[in-house]
Design a protein that fits this description.
The complex is a heterodimer.
Chain A lengths: L1 H18 L4 H5 L21 E3 L7 E3 L7 E2 L3 E3 L2 E3 L38 H4 L15 E5 L5 E5 L2 E4 L27 E2 L10 E5 L3 E6 L5 E4 L11 H6 L15 E7 L2 E6 L2 E2 L1 E2 L17 E3 L1 E4 L8 E4 L3 E5 L7 E5 L17 H8 L3 H7 L16 E6 L15 E6 L2 E4 L15 E3 L5 E5 L1 E4 L7
Antiparallel strand pairs in A: 1-2, 3-8, 3-9, 4-5, 6-7, 7-8, 10-11, 11-18, 12-16, 12-17, 13-14, 14-15, 19-20, 20-27, 21-24, 21-26, 22-23, 23-24, 25-26
Chain B lengths: L2 H15 L16 E10 L19 H8 L10 H12 L44 H6 L11 H12 L5 E6 L7 E10 L17 E3 L11 E8 L2 E4 L2 E6 L8 E13 L3 E11 H11 L2 H4 L6 H11 L2 E3 L6 E17 L7 H9 L20 H11 L3
The chains are: A alpha+beta, B alpha+beta.
Amino acid sequence: MKAAHGRFRHCARRGLAALGFLSAASLAAGAGVSAPTEPYVHVPMPPHFRVEATELDGPVFADPRGRTLYTWPFKIMRVGNTGDPKGQSHCTSVKTTESSGYMSPYPGGLEMPELDTRPSCVQMWPPVLADASAKPVGKWTIVKREDGNRQWAFDGLPVYTSVLDARPGDVLGGERYDHEGDDPAVRVPIGPPADVPPGFKVTTTVIGRLLQNERGFSVYASDADSSTRSNCDASCARTWPPMLAPESVRPHGEWTIIERSPGVRQWAFRGKPLYRYALDTRARSLAGSDEPGWHNVYTQRAPAPPAEFTVQETTSGQVLADAHGMTIYAYTCGDDAIDQLGCDHPTETQVYRLMMCGGGDAARCLRNFPYVAAPAGAVSHSRSWSVISIDPMSGRRARADDAKSLRVWAYRDRPVYVYAGDAQPGDVNGDAYGEFRGEREGYNAFWLRDDYFGRGG
Amino acid sequence: MNMLKASSLLVALGLACQAGAADAPAGAPVNGSIAYALTNLHWANYQTEGGKSECPDGFNEGNREQFKKLYPENGPKRTLVDTQLRWEIESWYPTLADDGFAFHEARGTTALGLNLDGKVGPNDFTSPTGEPGIDNQLFRALGCIKNYRGPDGAIQFFDDEMIGRDQYNRLIFEITGVEDLVNSPNVQVTLYRGRDPLLYDATGKKVVPGGSQRIDSRWGARYIQHMRGSIKDGVLTTEPVDIVYPWAPFYIATDEFMRAGRLRMKLTPTTAEGLIAGYSDVESWYLQMMKNWSTHHQNYGQTSAPALYRALRRLADAYPDPKSGANTAISSALRAEFTQVAIVPASRPQPATLAAIAARRPAEPYRGPPDPRQPQRPTAAVASPAASLAGAN
C-alpha cells in the first residue's frame, strides 16, 4: 500500500505542476498577495473606501478600515425567496428563531438550533452605514434602514461587512464563485470590474481568476508564442481560434495587440497572445491545457495548497487529495432561516455538521469524516490555506496549547476533511454528501477540474 | 401509465427477449464491428394500470408523508435538529430497525429481467413473454414507488433524460467479430465511455444513428471492460462479468456496480434495445440514489429513503458478506436503449494505455458509511407516533 501511495504521490506532483500550483509565481504568493494581481477598472467610490487585493476573489471593495464589502443578492428559492431586493435591506437585528421552510421539502416553523447563542443577521453582517453628509457617487447609493440609519448600497444592493473577516484582504464571509441551484442565499463580495477588453470576462475558480471569452469559454496561451508574434499558423488556428481585436480597440495596461497578418489583430495579455480552444464543449474548461505547450490564462493564481497535498484523477476530473491520495472534502452550510446565516465556520454553530458526519455523535464524526491533520511544523503559507487548532469534539476553534486540540489544515479558515468511506485514491464517495446533495449543507469534494459537470476549475 | 404505453413497452421488451427476429436485417457490419451509445436507461419495472396486479395494497408513502406522521404540525414544538436533521440522518445513515411504517413490495409472478442464476426458484418471476426463473428482486423494492414507475415517475423520467443530456453517462458498447447481425456465435463486446454529445434529429428529441464518439480513456478508464458473447436470431447475449458503469442520473458523478452483469439486446444496424441485468451492489446503489436525489427530489414520487434501504437489504439475494453473511447485492434489470455510433479511430486507447488501465487497482463498490449507526428508532420522542400511525398506512 505504501508503494501505491508513493506512485500516486509522484503522479500527483506532476498534476500539481500541470495545474500551475507549483509554479514559482504561485509559491511566491504564499506570504500574501505579492504575485501578479488582477488589473481592475478604477471606478468612483465613497470617500475613504478602497480596493483590496485578495488571494481568491481578485480586487474587492473595502471600507475605510479595509474590511471587504459584501451584498446579499435577492434569491428565488424553492419555497419562497430571501436576500435583499434593490434599495432595501432585509438583514435586521431581530434574532431569527424558526426555520423559513424555503428549502423544500421541510416545513418552516422549526426551532433553530442553539437559540441562546444564535446571532442576529446584523451581528454577523454589520451594515456599512453612511453618515449624514454622505452623497451617492457612481454606482454607490444610500438606502434607509428600518431603524432610520442610512446604509451604503452598490448597484442598488445594501452593503455589509462580515464579522469573520479580521484583516484587510480577508474574504471569509463569502466568495465570488458562481453559486447556482439550491445553494443558500449567500453573501457575495463586491469589487470593481476586471480591466479586460470587450469580449472577455474573469471568473473565480479554485485555481485562480480564470480569463474567459464573453460566453464563458476559457482563453488559452501558447508557450510557442512571443509577446509580438503568434506561432499558431492557419492550420493551428482551426483548433486554436485567435481572440481577435477589432480595429476600434487600443492596447492598455497589461493588454497589448499583435498583428497576426496585415489587418488581423489579436489580443495578448501579459505578453502572451490569446486563443480559444475549438474542442472545448463547455464553459470554464481546462481541457485545452492538456495539449502540450498550451495553458489556461489567469489574471491571478490562487495560493498553492499544502505541499504534501496531491492531485488525483476521478471519473469526471481531478480532485485535491491528502498526502495519501485520499480526496479532500470541504464542508459548507447555510441554515434555512430567513436570514440564511452560515453554519460552516468554526465560530458558527456546528450542530449541522455534527449531525451530517455522525448523527450528532462527535466521535463518530471523527471516524467518518476525519480532519486533515497538519504535519508537525506545518505553518500557514497563505490566508487561503492555513493551519488552525480545533477542539475535535465541539468543532470549534481551540487554543493551540490545548493538549486536546488538533492542528488541522483549513481552507478559507474552515477545516478540510477526508472521508473514511473512500477506499482508494480517486474515490469521491463523500462528495455531495448532505442536505440537498450537499448544496445546502454537507460535504463536497475539492474539485480542481471537472470535465463533465464543470465543478472546480 | 396508460395501457397502450405499457403494452408498447412490454412488446419492445418482449422483442428483445424472445427468439424471433424476423425483422432484423442480415449482413455484417464494416470490419465486423459495430458500436452503440446509450440513449435511455431506467430500472425495468413491470407495470399494470394503477399497479392493480403488482401493487394491490397501493403505492408507498414517501419522505414527506412519513415526516408529517412522525412530526405532526399540531404536536409538540418541533426543533430543526430533532425533525429535519434527524430525517436526513435516517436517510444518510440508515439502519435496519423497523420504523413502524408499512412498506409495499411489488407482488405477483411477473417481472422483467433475466434468469441470472440459471435456476427457477420460489422467489423468481416469469417474464411477460413466459420465460421462467427471472431474477429481479430490485423490482420488489421499486415496483410500488411512484418515482420508479413510467412514464411519469420523476426518477424514471430523469434517468432516461440525463442519459442523453450528460456525457458522463455516455456508455458505449462495441461488438467485434460480427459475422452478421443476426447470427454470430462468437463476438467480443467492449464497454467504453464516450466523450461527445449524442446526435439528435431536428426535433431535438430523437437520437439518430451515425454520430461520432471519442472514447474517454482518461477519466473513463475504469469503464473500459470486456465481455464475450454471441448473437442469435438478432439478439446479442453476453456472458456474465462484474461491470462498473457511469451513471449520474442528476448531475452527481456516481458509479453503479453490477456483479455477474450481462446484456441481452435486440440488434439492428441502427439500434440496440433490451436489458442489462445482474446483481447490483446494494450500498453503491443506495449511495448513488442519495447523492443524486435529495429528500426534495425523492418527494417527486414518494420515495422514503430509509424504507427503501431496508427493502434493498431485506431483498438482497446474492454475494453474501464473508463476515456477516448478509447479502450485499440484489438481482436487478435495466431497460436500455442504444443508437449506433461511429467511434473516432484516433480516440481509441493505444495498447500501452490499455495495459496501464489493466494494471490499475480495480474500482471497488462502496461499503457504506465507515461508522454506521446501530439499529435504533429515529428518536424516543417520535417512535410512538410512528408506531401508532403505522396502522393508518
